[in-house]
Design brief:
This protein is an alpha+beta fold. It is built from nine helices and six strands; from the N terminus they run H-H-H-H-E-E-E-E-E-E-H-H-H-H-H. Strands 1-2-3-4-5-6 form a six-stranded antiparallel sheet, with no helix packed on it. The radius of gyration is 36 Å and the shape is flat.
Length: 427
């Protein structure tokens, strides 16, 4: 739906649309799997708590830690598989999706002919059709002005014809019947030629209408694997070291004046002193310009390195969220004592919105150099892990139940009595 306005009227093949959907589903999988893990954990432990199975297992000597062992093991496997998907599949899918959207954006709508109006959508041609049979797509009284050769005037007329694309979509074929070709030379006005034909076929260039998918293109950080981004960051760090070395060299030049004609022992006249002073100022100005230029390059290189490091850490942090959400979901499911999908989905959405806000905020702060890329990408995992451990310990030691009575404050007073009466009757 996001790209619907860019797809309508393009005459795209169904397979192209399906490929575009599949490529864009890839980055959604990376976000859906951690959230699905949290929903599943909340529902599972919520059902156990709702049916008093948690109480029975605790009375039998089974602690919450043992109950969480199998889900934690499963989450580790899911995290590993998601990491492989995130590193090997997602970059190529993002790259192909970008190329596909660029190709679709360049593609113009299919050729449209209106009876009684000239169409100039085809390069170097003007096409006029008097009537179009919508059932058979037959064209009547066709007039075509051919401008492919600027030195000649070429007009083709036909009583009827058909227009269609070649199988590879590279050519627009005009199949004409019972017509004439009128040709004259602009340079030699005395030359005129007329050809009468029963069948005539014109092949026109259809690059502006055909869809041709690109095969290559430069990749951004979201279209690269960890190995490729690590190589880029290593090369960028080497460049940064070279900039620092150049800055050091220029700084050292400020403290040494190597001039054979001028030395401290030869400064006896005002003219010589002024010449030395002028050369020193020029050297300082030149060194300052070089240092400032290298400093800007270092800052730009740092931003590039941080951009790639953010994406590297993200490929680890998102799969790790599956494990973190087990620590959050298990104790919360027991506390809520409700295993329905609605309750699980609402709680999961709240936590995932918090997690996503931390992730987006950390990414922006890291790319601006305010926080480190590691902290920006792992802050949410660290915080939720700490909260999950506390909830797990507290839930294992004592039974805690989360009540939703605080939601009654949001209900108007006039409706509260009716809700309480209905709840009492249902109980």
């Amino acid at each position: 739906m996001k790209f619907a306005d860019r797809l309508v009227g393009k005459g795209l093949d169904t397979w192209i649309i399906l490929k575009l959907i599949a490529f864009n589903l890839s980055w959604m999988v990376v976000l859906v799997v951690p959230m699905a893990t949290l929903v599943a954990t909340l529902m599972a432990f919520g059902n156990l708590s709702q049916n008093s199975e948690v109480t029975i297992m605790k009375s039998a000597g089974v602690s919450l830690y043992k109950m969480m062992a199998a889900p934690l093991a499963a989450s580790i496997i899911i995290s590993w598989l998601l990491f492989l998907f995130n590193n090997d599949v997602l970059p190529d899918a993002n790259h192909q999706a970008k190329l596909l959207m660029q190709d679709i954006s360049r593609k113009k709508p299919t050729l449209s002919l209106e009876p009684g109006f000239f169409s100039k959508e085809v390069s170097n041609y003007a096409i006029l059709v008097r009537d179009i049979n919508e059932k058979t797509n037959e064209l009547s009284e066709v007039v075509i002005y051919d401008y492919t050769d600027p030195t000649k005037i070429n007009v083709v007329t036909a009583l009827k014809g058909f227009i269609y694309f070649s199988p590879d979509q590279s050519k627009l074929i005009m199949n004409l019947h019972e017509g004439e070709i009128h040709e004259s030379d602009i340079k030699d006005t005395g030359v005129y030629r007329k050809i009468v034909f029963e069948n005539h076929r014109i092949s026109m260039n259809a690059d502006r209408f055909s869809f041709q998918q690109s095969a290559t293109g430069l990749r951004s950080e979201r279209e690269l694997s960890i190995e490729a981004m690590t190589e880029i960051t290593d090369s960028l760090k080497i460049q940064r070291t070279a900039y620092f070395s150049n800055m050091q060299t220029e700084s050292n030049k400020l403290f040494f004046i190597n001039d054979e004609n001028i030395s401290p022992h030869t400064i006896h006249t005002t003219e010589t002193a002024n010449l030395l002073y002028s050369r020193v100022l020029n050297r300082i100005s030149s060194a300052k310009s070089v240092i400032l230029s290298d400093q800007r390059r270092v800052q730009g290189t740092d931003r590039e390195i941080e951009k790639y490091e953010v994406e590297i850490y993200k490929k680890y942090s998102l799969p790790a969220a599956c494990i973190v959400f087990i620590l959050i979901g298990a104790p919360l499911g027991i506390m809520v004592k409700r295993g329905g999908f609605g309750v699980a989905a609402s709680i999961s959405l709240s936590f995932f919105l918090l997690y996503w806000a931390f992730l987006i905020g950390g990414e922006k702060l890291a790319e601006r150099g305010i926080v480190s890329p590691f902290l920006g990408m792992w802050a949410a995992n660290i915080l939720l892990t700490f909260v999950g451990i506390l909830l797990t310990i507290k839930t294992n030691k004592e039974s805690v139940t989360i009540q939703f009575s605080f939601l009654m404050k949001l209900v108007p007073k006039k409706l509260r009595s009716g809700i309480k009466t209905n709840s009492d009757e249902n109980s």
